[in-house]
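Reading group handout, session on sequence-to-structure problems. Before we discuss, look at one worked example. The prompt was deliberately terse, the way you'd type it at a terminal:

> structure Probable butyrate kinase

The input record follows.
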Amino acid sequence: MKKILVINPGSTSTKVAYYEDKEEKLNKNVFHDNSELAGFEKISDQYDYRLNLIAEFLEQEGISVSDLDAAVGRGGSLPPVDAGAYLVNDSMIDWLVNKTDVHHASNLGAMLARGFKEKAKDDCIAMIYDPITVDQFHDLSRISGLKGVNRRSIGHMLNMRAIAMKTAEEMDKKYEDLNLIVAHLGSGSSISVHEKGRMIDLSIDDEGPFSVERTGSLCLKEFIPFCYQMTQEEVTSWTRKKGGMISYLGTNSGIEVEERIDAGDEEARLILEAMAYQVAKGIGELATVVNGQVDGIVITGGFAYSKRILDWVTERVSFIAPVSAIPGEFEMEALRNGALRVLAKEEIGKEFK
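And the output record:
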């Protein structure tokens, strides 16, 4: 029996799960006090605070860290890497602390995994799986339209690949034999196309459909003048935190918007349908990457719980391929499964260099 700790850091909380083989024994969100987080200058400075808080929580839950076979964290903003498992080493930690240009809470995943490995038995491994910078683009995918500005492969890689593999399993097919499109819809959205087991292109949350808090692609002629009226920090905030649905409707709650539609709010209906409309356009765009040879389209993320969103997207894209929904996210299970494969020597834990 293999004992696995899974750690998925978010901006204000850390998801923690404990498994014995595939059996889930614990799955909780450990919340962090905003006033305490505000005292840390950088994300990496939160390491000791989060490590101690999680360790105390596990002790209270009766989980013995010393018996762990693997501690696996969500992979952060590394340079572009291929998909799969990576063992945590000094080079990885150095990159996440000192070299990355994307300061995201997921950067703590590798650090916390190694922290718990050091508390465990000697043969415990610390690893990450499918970090947010998984890059399987082909050359055509990288061209943006302006020399010197390349398209970047970054997004909800862990969940989208997990959903693609889960879909293949449900179809009784191999992931490597299918062409799939996966749309992850949440506060930010990513849509990816998977060709025979490789995620060769995607529409990331600043160039595709608008989402709950992010603008997606904008008409540059209209937007450029705004940039001269704001600082870089303000532009980033408007496009990544205050844009999208919240800019139109003043809320980031999909449930509230659905309730407003039920009460007859036509503006709420227009904006939510426009978001679904743009998601459908993004799916159609990526279908061309595989010449329309798509075996399945999958909607996942928080908005996959919305029947309205699903119906609006499905009616526009079902001519391409069958549409299914897997609501929520499966990141914890994906991290667990990756660790189990490495422990069983079914997959090699790569070395980050």
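Points for discussion. First: The CA atoms of residues 111 and 311 lie 41 Å apart. Second: Residues 266-287 form the longest helix (22 residues).
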